[in-house]
Amino acid sequence: MDLETLLFSQGFGSRRQCRGIIAEGRVRIAGVVRDDPRDDFPVMPELEFEVDDHLWTYREKAYVALNKPAGYECSRDPQHHLSIFHLLPPQFAERGMQAVGRLDQDTTGLLLLSDDGAFVHAFTSPRRKVPKVYLATVRHPLDDEQLTKLREGVLLHGETKPSAALAAARRDERLLELTVLEGKYRQVKRMVAASGNRVEKLHRERVGGYALPESLAQGAWRWLDESDLAALRGEPGKTP
Ligand code: URA
């Protein structure tokens, strides 16, 4: 792959901007400045390159986990708050990465992003039932009746079929662990409201078999590798 195409594919701007970055001598491969956009490099197995002293690895498709803080909208064109893309390198938006299902602006925790359309579709399709584990701090003490309602199904406003949690458990008097399979608009808040309580804080802990890493600080992101993707798909123990 030539150098211009390499930078372009990784989100470093238009082809013209990529040629400019290269001509300015800002790109190095194996420690050597590369200033010819037509220079050719094999991208396999994993080509590393530096732009402005920052090290990147070529990725055909990008998969990322973000520990989303409150106060950020998942849209690239937010209405009232900053976009989550403020927390990420500009190359991510440039190469077309998008959130894999949205979290409300006040929800925290695990958010996946990718530019792999098939992956985004597979994990957001209503037909693909991916369990998502949420921790909800609720206003009123949880009782068994509420938990039973959540497990057996509650009717959400405007819907004809009840929505049931895969699991609903009390972690504390006012801390609910809820596992849902669908990703309907404000699903957890609406389900909890329909069970007679109210969500005051919401955090996503897990998607499929992939849990938010404890080492990932709020606002920080990390690449997902093959074993993370296998865990997401519910294939624990599978190695790359
Ligand atoms: N359910 C909600 O109500 N909000 C979220 O952000 C995610 C799930």
Automatic annotation (TrEMBL):
InterPro entries: PsdUridine_s_RsuA/RluB/E/F_cat, PsdUridine_synth_cat_dom_sf, PsdUridine_synth_RsuA/RluA, PsdUridine_synth_RsuA/RluB/E/F, PsdUridine_synth_RsuA/RluB_CS, RsuA_PseudoU_synthase, S4_RNA-bd, S4_RNA-bd_sf
Enzyme class of the recorded protein, top EC level: isomerase
PROSITE patterns the record matches: PSI_RSU (PS01149), S4 (PS50889)
Record keywords, A-Z: Isomerase, RNA-binding
Signal peptide positions (record): none
GO cellular component: cytosol
Name of the molecule in the record: Pseudouridine synthase
